[in-house]
Design brief:
- There is one protein chain.
- The protein is of the alpha+beta class.
- It folds into two domains: 200 residues, no CATH class; 128 residues, no CATH class.
- 27% of the residues lie in helices and 26% in strands.
- The chain has ten helices and 17 strands.
- It has a six-stranded antiparallel β-sheet with strand order 2-1-4-5-6-7, covered by helices on one side. A six-stranded mixed β-sheet has the order 8-14-15-3-16-17.
- Helix 4 packs across helix 5.
- The chain is globular and about 60 Å long.
- The chain starts with 11 loop residues before the first strand and ends in a 10-residue tail after the last helix.
- This is AAA family ATPase.
- Pfam families: AAA_21.
- One of its GO terms (biological process) is double-strand break repair.
- InterPro entries: ATPase_AAA_core, P-loop_NTPase, RecF-like.
């Protein structure tokens, strides 16, 4: 198991009362692969990071409203769970928060603080409805922690329908980073082609490994409006550009994933999170995806249902998610404890045999 960068990567998470996760205390490493049955709680774990992202953007109450109410976020609602608590550790630094539901269906900070193991907690407020983390503590603790948390990104490329944002024209200058649903993929690749050609070429060559018919992207301002751009591509040996809707769903998703993991280091989030990246991919594409994940210089957290993807990792990289009596539990595997099994079976085979857990249970 590869360790984390103590300042910039999440080393431990304590989470209580979030959706199916009644209680969780989990050490995180550079590679973190979540496996489990449908409904076990993998997506809820990754969804927590989305909530923190909205919290940091001062959008907590909007997020709560869009979820339906605080009861949709609290484990079995406020009658069962009075508070949502979390502690996020980055080596010697940390950020803690406790959220309580209110009568008008908001979440209020009952406590918000930073932590440093040499001086303990430093409270930054209570009774407020949006974070006070950016007010400043007068120490460098908040700088370390916030810079890491702000550079988490949860990617989700499930929507490849005709109305998906990735297939629509969008602003050509929307290229500061690759958005979570890749809606600005064309403008981001346009920037990489012109300013980071080595990274761009690595992306194109990797796509060709999975889709040999693919020649290159056709990236240009729209002839009708120079302020927008649309994702277009060439087939190998041809000069007629095609629109994104002529790419298969699996190919389009792989293009997004290749861009995530091969983007220049300057753009890479400190922690990359992807929910079920294998969706729609051919087994060979899954092997290439695994190599991209292994080569990432950042912390990676992925959830998967794929035996093929699981087989590409070590046991120490894997976190098993089980759900019993409505409660999700998360447990990291131990390579040493499985050595005898791994002499004869792959991780995927052990998963299917229910040696690892993470399978449907009655």
């Amino acid at each position: 198991m590869t360790g984390t960068n103590s300042d910039k990567q999440l080393s431990r998470i304590v989470l209580k009362g979030f959706k199916s996760i009644a209680k969780c205390d989990l050490e995180l490493s550079k590679l973190n692969v979540l496996i489990g049955a449908n409904g076990a709680g993998k997506s809820n774990f990754i969804g927590f990071f989305r909530m923190v992202g909205q919290l940091l953007e001062q959008n907590l109450q909007v997020f709560v409203s869009r979820q339906g109410s605080p009861d949709a976020l609290l484990h079995f609602g406020r009658k069962t769970t009075e508070q949502l608590e979390f502690q996020l550790y980055f080596g010697n630094n940390g950020y803690f928060a406790t959220l309580e539901p209110t009568q008008d269906n908001r979440l209020m900070f009952a406590e918000e603080s930073f932590w440093w193991n040499m001086s303990g907690e430093r409270e930054i407020g209570k009774g407020h409805f949006e974070t006070k983390a950016f007010v400043g503590t007068g120490t460098r603790i908040d700088e370390y922690v916030l810079s890491a948390m702000q550079q988490w990104r949860v990617y989700h490329f499930h929507d490849t329908s005709d109305s998906a944002y990735i297939k629509q024209p969008h602003g050509i200058n929307d290229n500061a980073y690759l958005r979570s649903d890749a809606r600005n993929l064309a403008s981001f690749l346009y920037l990489l082609r012109d300013s980071y050609p080595a990274s761009y070429q690595r992306i194109v060559k990797t796509i060709r490994l999975v889709a040999p018919f693919f020649g290159d992207f056709h990236l240009r301002p729209s002839p009708q409006n120079k302020e927008v751009i649309e994702l277009e591509w060439f087939e190998g040996g041809q000069d007629i550009p095609f629109k994104a809707h002529l790419l298969s769903d699996g190919t389009l998703r792989f293009i997004c994933l290749a861009t995530v993991f091969l983007q220049p280091e300057d753009f890479q989030p400190k922690t990359i999170l992807v929910d079920e990246p294998e969706l729609g991919l051919h087994p060979y594409a899954i092997t290439i995806l695994a190599s991209l994940i292994h080569s990432a210089k950042r912390q990676v957290i992925v959830s998967t249902q794929s035996v093929e993807l699981l087989n590409e990792f070590d046991a120490n990289d894997v976190i098993v998610v089980n759900r019993d009596d409505g409660k999700s539990s998360l447990r990291r595997l131990n390579q040493h404890e499985l050595e005898a099994w791994l002499e004869d079976y792959s991780l995927g085979e052990l998963w299917k045999k229910n040696v690892l857990g993470g399978r449907p249970s009655r």
